[in-house]
Amino acid sequence: MSADLAAFPDRDTVADKLAALGEAEQAYLRLLMENAKQDENLLEGLDLYLNRAAGARFLNSLKLEKLGEWLGNTAPARLQMRLVETARSSQHAAFAAFRTGLTRSGGLDRAYPKA
To answer: Over the stretch 103-114, which tens digit does the pLDDT of each residue have?
Structure first.
């Protein structure tokens, strides 16, 4: 591991927080997004969460869309492109639902306005 990468929280913890996404989890994730050194942990946790959703027996696309929309509205500009890259990393319906919510939030457009 790199010295710049903070060891806590691990990707499992972040994935669990994203899965629950109650008020306490949202506050925790907002705090996590304030520190740029935590970006890798957040993105690894998001990837794990999306892969878990893709492997689940039941696909809750509404929940995935809401997560995408919340992250798009909440994440700082430095994370917007990486969130889009994560959303486009698979053609699975779980990633597509997340991508739909992320697009609906308009976070990427706010981070990188058109000229």
So the answer is: 999 999 999 998
Q: Count Cα neighbours of 111 within 13 Å in the Cβ-side half-sphere.
A: 20
Write 94-100 long-range contacts (CB < 8 A, 24+).
Answer: 94/50, 94/53, 94/54, 94/56, 94/59, 94/61, 94/64, 95/50, 95/54, 97/59, 97/61, 97/62, 97/64, 97/65, 97/68, 98/50, 98/64, 98/65, 98/67, 98/68, 99/68, 100/65, 100/68
Residues 6+ apart with CB under 8 A from 66: 21, 101
pTM of the predicted protein model: 0.92
